[in-house]
């Protein structure tokens, strides 16, 4: 068994406060036997006021949140998955997922590929691409406590090709940190998490933002852990922040892949001729 901790957060506009929350839970998680702690998308800063947020979005090597979380990982001896906005060399922002090992070093770095540009019936409008640059590569981290870990972020979950590639690379688990809106969460969150777990024949860990945030947005919560069969191992509520532990059985991966060898049976789909 590998024990993980899933931190559901109501991140605010203070990077220091968010970092302190993560560090506190890292110590607690390690004390309760967890090998890894998963945090949501934008765990280090959640602020839709881009002018205000710009004061805190800095290069990764200058980030107070990165420093504090790296120290927390090293001091607690636990791996930490962190969601944070960072300033790129070209002046644009990246919605980034960092994976720290138990020595506090960055073991993996992934920039969100798919930008959340939508207008919902509720009147909510999101244009992530107006400030953020999309990532351009698939990232898999070898030799984590969960084996091969694929990194994705939130809206990526709606694009099967990414998860097809993660399945092709034989990921044992996939992290999908998120800050889902309430309407989209109610409609699709559980469905998509389960589908991606089944497609990749891998565990899926979806640490989520929850509740009403300082910037006025409301997020869905319901942090999940789903096994390769699509069964929910953990489902936190949509009401409050908090942390829960979950024991992952690695043998479950091969068990499912033997029963349903979809990865082994996969074939390239021939292109249809134009008529």
What's a quick, concise take on this entry?
The chain is built from 7 helices and 16 strands. It is α/β, with parallel strands linked by helices. The chain has a 6-stranded mixed β-sheet. Strands 8-9-10-11-14-15 form a 6-stranded mixed β-sheet, with helices on one face.
Cα distance spanning the termini: 54 Å
Low-confidence stretches: none
- Please write the string of helix (H) and strand (E) elements: EHEHHEEEEEEEHEHEEEEEEHH
User: What is the arithmetic mean of pLDDT?
Assistant: 93
Explain how this protein is built.
- This protein is 27% helix and 28% strand.
- The strands form four sheets. The protein has a six-stranded mixed sheet with strand order 5-4-3-2-1-16. Strands 8-9-10-11-14-15 form a six-stranded mixed sheet, covered by helices on one side.
- α1 runs parallel beside α3 (64-76).
- The mean pLDDT is 93.
- It has seven helices and 16 strands.
- The protein is α/β, with parallel strands linked by helices and 275 residues long.
Give the key terms:
275 residues; 6-stranded mixed β-sheet; alpha/beta; single chain; 16 strands
Which helices and strands appear, and what pairs or packs with what?
Blueprint: E1 2-8, H1 15-31, E2 36-38, H2 50-53, H3 64-76, E3 79-87, E4 93-100, E5 106-111, E6 117-119, E7 125-127, E8 139-144, E9 147-151, H4 160-168, E10 173-175, H5 182-200, E11 203-206, E12 210-212, E13 218-220, E14 224-226, E15 232-235, E16 242-248, H6 251-259, H7 262-265
Parallel strand pairs: 1-2, 2-3, 9-10, 10-11
Antiparallel strand pairs: 1-16, 3-4, 4-5, 6-7, 8-9, 11-14, 12-13, 14-15
């Amino acid at each position: 068994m590998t024990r993980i901790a899933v931190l559901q957060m109501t991140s605010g506009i203070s990077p220091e406060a968010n970092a302190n929350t993560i560090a506190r839970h890292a110590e607690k998680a390690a004390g309760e036997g967890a090998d890894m702690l998963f945090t949501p998308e934008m765990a280090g800063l959640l602020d839709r006021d881009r002018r205000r947020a710009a004061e805190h979005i800095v290069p990764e090597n200058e980030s107070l949140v990165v420093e504090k979380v790296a120290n927390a990982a090293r001091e607690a001896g636990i791996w930490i998955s962190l969601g944070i906005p960072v300033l790129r060399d070209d002046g644009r922002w990246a919605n980034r997922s960092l994976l720290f090992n138990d020595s506090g070093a960055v073991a993996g770095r992934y920039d969100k590929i798919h930008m959340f540009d939508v207008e919902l019936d509720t009147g909510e409008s999101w244009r992530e691409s107006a400030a953020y640059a999309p990532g351009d590569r698939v990232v898999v981290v070898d030799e984590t406590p969960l084996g091969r870990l694929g990194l994705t972020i939130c809206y990526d979950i709606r694009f099967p090709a990414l998860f097809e590639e993660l399945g092709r690379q034989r990921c044992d688990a996939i992290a999908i940190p998120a800050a889902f809106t309430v309407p989209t969460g109610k409609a699709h969150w559980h469905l998509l998490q389960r589908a991606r777990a089944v497609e990749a024949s891998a565990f899926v860990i979806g640490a989520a933002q929850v509740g009403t945030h300082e910037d006025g947005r409301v997020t869905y919560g319901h942090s999940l852990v789903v096994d390769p069969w699509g069964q929910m191992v953990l489902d936190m509520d949509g009401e409050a922040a908090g942390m829960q532990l979950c024991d992952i059985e690695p043998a479950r991966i091969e068990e499912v892949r033997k029963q349903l060898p979809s990865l082994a049976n996969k074939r390239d789909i021939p292109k249809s001729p134009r008529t």
